[in-house]
Amino acid sequence: MHKCIFHKKQPKYRHTSIFIHLKKMKIPRRKKWLKSFMLDDYLISNWHRICRNHFTISDNKQGSAYKQILWPESVPKQHPNNLLEIESSLDLCWTRIHEGIQMYLKAFQLPGESPLI
């Protein structure tokens, strides 16, 4: 089985083992993809692939679950799934900070006084 050029290991699960052959791509598109990984074209061999873990749902056309078809303008990302996790954890942090500030202000509010927030 081929390995992904980015994380250089075989996928953990069979359903993530869809690979895209880099050498068979048209040169302008391949260069754009390699630029997203900060790789040079001369380092690519016939054995190099990019696994589907580097694409988001919006990169794929709606179609069969067994055949993944990418939009022509799709470019792989190094960690697309991690970005979503980071965004959601930041939202959670801001929510907790806001709740903490409200509790702090409420603790120092005098009886009969209007809320500060």
Automatic annotation (TrEMBL):
Name of the protein in its database record: THAP-type domain-containing protein
Keyword terms, alphabetized: DNA-binding, Metal-binding, Zinc, Zinc-finger
Organism, scientific name: Acyrthosiphon pisum
Record bears the keyword Oxidoreductase: no
Keyword DNA-binding: yes
GO molecular function: DNA binding; zinc ion binding
Domain THAP-type, residue spans: 14-77
Entry superkingdom: Eukaryota
